[in-house]
Amino acid sequence: MTSSKKIMIVFILNLCFSIIEFIYGNIFLSGAILADSIHDFGDAIAIGFSAFLEKTASRNEDSKFSLGYKRFSLLGALITSLILLSGSSWVIIENIPKLWNPKFVNYQGMTILSIIAIFVNGLASIATHSGKTKNEEILSLHFLEDILGWIAILILSLILNLKPWYFLDPLLSILISIFILSKATPKFISNLKIFLDGVPDSINYQSLSYDLKQVPHIKSINQLNVWSMDGIDNKIIIHCCLTNYNFKDECKQSIRQICKNYNISSITIEIDTSIEDHKKLCNTN
């Protein structure tokens, strides 16, 4: 199953359950469940947008996007990350005052709905967990947040059935949100770095540069650009000078092998006659 189809299934599950949450939130007179239904509805919209971007990312390059559409998947991951970060931050801000002023919680309705929610979000998490794209990866983390949240609600509802410790509701919400922020923040930074054409975290630029300079007949590396379209498809552009131009084919073969060892799939090699010639042709100083 393609990643876009997986995300579309997840979108339908999330949208339907947010409607169920809204209905039962009114039946149980639970403001917490109603608030969560609004949160999940917003998530469903974001997931639907991600599904559209994931489908777009599978298109081949054309006259409008000569490098292809793979970066659209990364854009979806960034948008979902922002929703995850802002949502978790909002939960923390909203629940800190409730630690000193806890409110009554309808634990009976929470117990039933939390069991259903864990099942639904579990299916969504499984559907995206095995995915390879950054979009699927961040969506899987998103559903982990929901599963942990509903497990906390289930445990809380069972405790409240025995003891009226209503302060546990905001406390657990804050702890889960802090955990999600600790996971989502590094992923957001990593995805943003890729989106801005930074060197992928999986590639050691200094080590790669050193290995390339050790290739026989390489006189100098004049330009070395490494980036990724989506965190999976790594690309490189190399400009170099040789001590003997007659060995250019052997040098290119060695360079390609080194790049493949660094999991770089798209390799462009240009042999310069001199550093001055490279600067002149590339308009560098």
Automatic annotation (TrEMBL):
Keywords: Membrane, Transmembrane, Transmembrane helix. It is a multi-pass membrane protein. It is found in: Membrane. The chain crosses the membrane at residues 7-27, 33-53, 74-93, 105-126, 138-159, 165-184. Residues 8-195 form the Cation efflux protein transmembrane domain. InterPro entries: Cation_efflux, Cation_efflux_TM, Cation_efflux_TMD_sf, CDF/SLC30A. One of its GO terms (cellular component) is plasma membrane. It comes from the Bacteria. SUPFAM superfamilies: Cation efflux protein transmembrane domain-like. GO terms for molecular function: zinc ion transmembrane transporter activity. NCBIfam families: CDF (TIGR01297). This is Cation transporter. It comes from Streptococcus bovimastitidis.
